[in-house]
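Structure catalogue
Derive tokens from sequence
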Amino acid sequence: MGCRILAHLCSKVADAIARFAGESTGDIVKRLACFSTLTLMAASAGLFAQSASSNLDSSPSPAQVAASPVSKAAANAAPAPFSRLALSVGVGANGINFQAAVEANRYINIRGVGNYFSYTLSNIKSNGVTASGSLNLATAGVTVDLYPFPNHGWRLSPGLLFYNQNGGSLTGGVTGGSTFTVNSDKYESDPAAPVTETGTIALNSTNPAFTMTTGWGNLISRKGGHFSVPFEIGAAFVGSPKVNLSYPTGEVCAYSESTDACTSPYESASSFPALETDTTAQIAKYNKDLNVLKVYPIFSIGIGFNFNLH
């Protein structure tokens, strides 16, 4: 009976805290405070009952019978599934990192992850071509965070990258009368019709893609804290990169370094047979060099905050 009264009082205290805090992030301590108070007070009631029973008889008192299950339940209590939400922001290999997580149970969080980054370069000069390029990283996915030791931060996180727009692009050209190199062969850009170049790289040939990461720092602490510093490292299996390269406008001729002159008349760059062959070979080289990125690295560190949903 005594523990039921204590439980009732604890509930009243929790309601008072809820009315005081409203929707503030301090609500997350409500249930933890309730459970801690109940455990300590119930344990004290049990000790008092044991002392009294030693002066009366050997049979257990009602307070002893009631205190044991309540204390055990309070000690093992955990927040209800999907009752807590965590948000975080950080930086990593994919740019600015955003995360949101909910607690499914004591051992599992379900987490959404997004990344974004954009960077532009101008006047890039390579092999006779002057170009401007941009790198764009944008991904979104979901993971299941498994915590084998829930009071510690280490985890394993299989997941799925369902949105992936990682890639880059460039546009450029060759000054008329200048030479440029494709697959070790040289060509000259027509002074009257300078050649242009475009290129793209896509890092998403497998979409959606499986991810596997590990890390430290539980966004929803099982110890009741609000803040966390999540660290994550792993990989996304996005498939082999795809490179595209073309010369859509302008005219070119095959160029000989030994004679310092064209060895053929100017023709359209988009249909010049030798340039087409060299472009295909150059693309194959780029794809081979970049094939390591089929296992795309995941790395991030940030700061998170969690609070009660209800």
